[in-house]
Write a structure and sequence with these properties.
174 residues, mainly alpha, 10 helices, 75% helix
């Protein structure tokens, strides 16, 4: 902005060249960061189209089919073990859009995407605890698909009613 003001006040070829060069560099940075963060921008553009698409009705049979496909992916392929799993990733694997996936979670599976993932991850963690009681809690958390220990502890306690350590002690005594 300062270079533009100086350029407007004084017609000098050096200032004009500096202005044009700085503008070009600025646009190159914008283009570079837009390219590098294309997936984030895609997520943002998908979320704005969600508002329009939410009003569309999906046939009940289609939603139930998507719900079955989701259950299959989670139960057989255990995609919930991916700590970076997003609704858009699931939609890509099922060749559908994010709205159908969200509607299937809400109406067919009667839960949200994040709650369903966390439930599956905690179920997997409890199986690990019972089958491999010597395994450290941190390894169980990360092997179960959690990206952070705080999230693992919080969800474990919400679902099982106790901390992982207390659960491990219960398993050891039985």
């Amino acid at each position: 902005l300062v270079i533009w003001i100086i350029d407007c006040m004084e017609a000098n070829y050096a200032i004009e060249a500096l202005y044009m060069t700085s503008t070009l560099v600025m646009w190159m940075f914008i283009a570079y960061y837009t390219y590098k963060h294309e997936s984030v921008l895609g997520e943002l553009s998908d979320s704005t189209s969600d508002d329009v698409l939410e009003n569309t009705e999906v046939a009940e049979s289609e939603m139930s089919e998507v719900g079955k496909q989701i259950s299959t992916l989670f139960d057989k392929e255990q995609i919930f073990l991916n700590p970076n799993l997003k609704v858009s990733d699931l939609a890509t694997q099922l060749y559908t859009n994010r709205v159908y996936i969200s509607q299937a979670f809400n109406y067919v599976l009667q839960t949200s995407f994040s709650d369903y993932i966390n439930k599956k991850r905690i179920e997997y963690a409890t199986r690990l605890i019972t089958t491999q009681p010597e395994m450290p809690v941190t390894d169980i958390a990360y092997d179960s698909g959690f990206a952070s220990l705080n999230s693992f502890y919080r969800n474990f306690k919400n679902i099982n009613g106790c901390s992982p350590k207390v659960y491990m002690r219960k398993v050891d005594t039985t």
